[in-house]
Amino acid sequence: SQQGEEDPQALSIQEGENATMNCSYKTSINNLQWYRQNSGRGLVHLILIRSNEREKHSGRLRVTLDTSKKSSSLLITASRAADTASYFCAPDGGSNYQLIWGAGTKLIIKP
Amino acid sequence: EAQVTQNPRYLITVTGKKLTVTCSQNMNHEYMSWYRQDPGLGLRQIYYSMNVEVTDKGDVPEGYKVSRKEKRNFPLILESPSPNQTSLYFCASSSPVGKREGRETQYFGPGTRLLVL
In sequence order, which residues have a C-beta less than 8 Å from that of residue B13 and are 6 or more positions away? Predict the structure, then answer.
């Protein structure tokens, strides 16, 4: 099974600052995805990075992937109050269809 | 609009009374999955399905059943609910499914809040 573990568990920053969240996993992957969850709602896909990619951008999001360290990071630049949410990573090895998600990083943007 | 729908969104029931939470997707996805989310524990996978008539246990399958008779629907059945099944439940779907491709974007339903008294 694949498991993503996010770090830190919680992060509180001022609006306008950058937020960085990290994800570690244990086995080889085909891709790794990041999701956002607003309180009590369904998860929303943010970005997918494949195992042969090292960095990917989408708007204010920047994701890096280091397969040698089995880690990924999500950077949100120029944070906004609307970015307040929990963020989850989902490493996907493909060969095992059981997914185990971490507890996520709870991001709070203070106005 | 591409979406995953769940019903009901909120449900209060009593111990032992069978219930079904429906999940439907309109994206022709092969892969569907059920998760429960509890405070501090993140998402835990209950069951998943790779295609019609193909289902398998996830991390926490005890007390749950599923079926996949049609590609678009993946109901979650609690034959005899207990208070420890009080949780927030999410259905998700994605495509493709393959050893080399892995899953693409997973689309999540809005969630079903279940309270078992």
Answer: B19, B81, B114, B115, B116, B117
